[in-house]
Here is the input.
Amino acid sequence: MRSLNSLQTDATTRARFVWLASRKLKNDGSRVGLAVLILTFVLVGAVSAQHRISLSGDLEGKIGYCKDCHGVSAQGFNGYYPIPRLAGQQPEYLQNQLRAFIEHRRTNNIMFNVAHSLSPAMLSALAAHFASLHPPPIGGAPRQLVATGRKIFEDGMPEVNIAACAACHGPDATGSGQIPRLAGQLYPYVIKTLNNWGKERGQNPTEPDTSAIMSPVAHSLNRSQIEAVAAFVSTLR
Amino acid sequence: MKFRPPKQQCRSAVRSPAGVALILPAVILALSFTSPSAAQDNVSKEQADAKLRYCEVCHGVSAQGFHGYYPIPRLAGQPVEYLKNQLQAFVEHRRTSNIMFNVGHVLSPAMIDALTTDFNQLNPKPVGGAPKENIDEGKKIFENGIAAANVPPCASCHGPQAKGNGPFPRLAGQLYDYITNKLTNWDKERGQNPSQPDTSAVMQPIAHSLTEPQIKAVAAYLSYLE
Amino acid sequence: MRNNGASLAILIMLCCALLAATAHAENLAIRNCTWCHGGSASGYPPAPALAGQRPQYVEKQLAYFHARTRDNPFARQYMWGAARNIDAQSARNLALYFASLPPRAANDGVPNLVGVGRTIYQEGMPDANIVACVVCHGPNAEGVRDIPRLGGLDYSYLKRRLEQWNQGYHAAAGPPMISIASKLSDDQAEALASYLSFVK
Here is the structure.
């Protein structure tokens, strides 16, 4: 188990050393000014170095924490609940979702707990980090559904008013801006998300958000169409 | 096996005075149903609304346009004739878009009528978001053209407020990156059947003559027009 | 004639014994397990409860014991020998059998730590980068697929597993468990183990 006090000890030790050194120089009058100058620089350096270390240490610690659930390369994990892939996700989308969790526009108690203490700087650093990861998809979806899923994804189903996912999510499902990447997303996660769209997202009717766009689509898809399209996107790299 | 009434009975029915009296209204009734597509060319308000909502999934709330993976254009306020021409172009592959072909080829004429009327009547604010530095230059190009490059003023066909008319599309409030994308790629997507040239041919030389900065300037200007 | 009769009788008896032995082979294996894991597989420290455990998890751990991958001192002392003759099919059968038994909570944790343990389990401790166990282990700590049931396992076993991961026995650990265990303080581990020992 890590000692949480190690960083503070370093700073204290440094400060004491500088103080002792300055006492030695104090007796020689002409060097007092120099000593004070050195002292100032060292202390400022010590404090800012500690600050830099703790900021990057914080980010590293937080990334590791996210990966405990979301997978060692954020590829997602089939826990009791399916935990989504974050790797390669659009940073704007990630930040929007974290904010939606914090503001309870998207209901998930665990993610609220995770997100509500994150600073804005941390939010954007995390989003940028996950966007940069590119592990292969976990896979595991039933293969026989993929062809149907591809058709729905690329062409839509105009007779039943289902838009082509590719129009917004891109032909390779990598998303863009606020529109999420779907490529490589977990099969059970996509199913659960589409099935429960209105139960989890857009929970503040006085503050409609980007989730409103998907609401008619999620409602129009039937169960087997959802499974097919989920299977398809889960295979994409 | 198709049922045929015995010939004798038929003949005798027609010949009798009662038969003639019955035939006339029957004929009138039949005539009112002769239009072959009449039965399937009705579209209910429910169906039209559902289709409209479907279009709005991609084209945005009130068809204002949407930045999907591709920029998806504003349809609000578009002239009916232009919209119908484009839908037909998609269906006939004169304008290439796999997604819009799929969308278009299942639409009945009555549905197209209903949709294009609905879109024409929508009037949301422009989505905006374009860079603003060169709007003035864009306005100049729109109103005066570029004589040196034989580019006529856009306003002369698209109208002084860029609201379009008949076959000429509305440009006011159109998405910035949609306009730049289209002008840059004009003949890669439109007029794809050389043996069946269409209205897109008009824009061909203009799109080619505009330089990239000019395209961006005029697109930015148009994207803010209401 | 009498010699032949006697030989035949002996032969028959041997065959019966052999048949009986084969028929009871699996029963024998199960009986062996219960010697340590308890008559209803509810555990007897240091052996954990197996009743109601996820079958995929049990199967996987038996394979690890058989291959000597899971290598903490207790595994070495007890399970390496126990699993030596368990092949894949037997492991599957055993796992299914244990999964079918009703779990019983050990109820041997520290009662006044249960509240803290429940909070850690259900909500995690985001400021300390400790994830909520519920996300993988389920709302009643029942597990799923190859993620084990923790509910009802005895306090000392749960605590010991977390300690073993911190002592470096990393082989055969579920993917995030080493990282998670490294962040838990002793107090937090005790609270979790206490809470879980009472979960039915």
Remarks:
- Chain B is about 50% helix and 0% strand.
- Chain B has one domain: 45-223.
